[in-house]
Design a protein that fits this description.
By secondary structure, the chain is mostly helical. The chain has one domain. Helix content is 73%, strand content 2%. Strands 1-2 form a two-stranded parallel sheet. The radius of gyration is 21 Å and the shape is globular. The N and C termini lie far apart (50 Å). 28% of the residues are buried.
């Protein structure tokens, strides 16, 4: 009987924790989307163009709209998986995403930035072009530094790579790794971001990863063993 009571208490505690985390996620989404909407609609006298010479040489390729849009499913599915199955990794992933996205808002607020890379006309007309036009219509070429598409993709990939799921089934790490690379490429081939935006996103991720995940315990144990041998 005592065991059953303990199990019931654990289930209730688990559900409370889950509800609290969902509330925090929703709260942050409201905060981020509100901040991003303000940035997109505010009036600034001038913006800093983040494109470099190489960006103008990269050809526009509409086929990359597929991985670009898959990003939304990729990030949402990753957060939901860790929310339901891996508590410790969820906390680190959520912290990484929240910190990076908040810093993005701060950077965009104090350093107005944008791009002038988008094609004015399209040589082809197909479903991919129409999807690109839809994205262009609903997402201005401003507030691009650092690239959140790149940053969040890296955060999701590294979380999956560290997960219990990937340790049991290595295909998950390979699959999400390929998707992450395609998403990063999509940002430049669709002219949504410059290479500089992507590099800054990578640099930001390296820093926030260390802050949110800390020192890898397995790596530290390996160092200790090597010192003892």
């Amino acid at each position: 009987m005592k065991r059953e009571v303990i199990i019931i208490k654990e289930i209730i505690a688990r559900k409370k924790t889950l509800l609290c985390r969902v509330a925090v996620i929703l709260g942050f989404c409201i905060f981020y989307l509100s901040g991003f909407s303000w940035l997109e609609n505010r009036h600034v006298s001038g913006i800093h163009i983040t494109a470099c010479a190489l960006d103008y040489k990269i050809p526009f390729q509409e086929i990359f709209i597929i991985p670009y849009l898959l990003w939304f499913v990729y990030i949402a599915a990753t957060v939901i998986y860790f929310l339901l199955h891996e508590d410790e990794n969820f906390n680190a992933l959520a912290g990484t995403l929240a910190l990076g996205m908040t810093l993005f808002l701060v950077v965009s607020a104090i350093y107005p930035n944008g791009l002038n890379l988008r094609p004015v006309t399209f040589e082809r007309d197909n479903i991919f072009i129409r999807l690109v036009q839809f994205v262009y219509k609903n997402d201005t070429p401003t507030n691009v530094l650092p690239s959140i598409h790149v940053y969040n993709s890296l955060a999701a990939f590294m979380a999956i790579k560290r997960s219990k799921l990937a340790r049991k089934q290595k295909g998950w790490a390979w699959g999400t790794g390929i998707l992450t690379v395609l998403i990063i490429l999509a940002t430049v081939f669709l002219k949504q971001h410059s290479m500089f935006d992507g590099v800054c996103a990578l640099a930001l991720y390296v820093v926030t990863d260390k802050l949110c995940y800390g020192v890898n315990p397995e790596t530290e144990r390996s160092k200790v063993r090597n010192q003892l041998i």
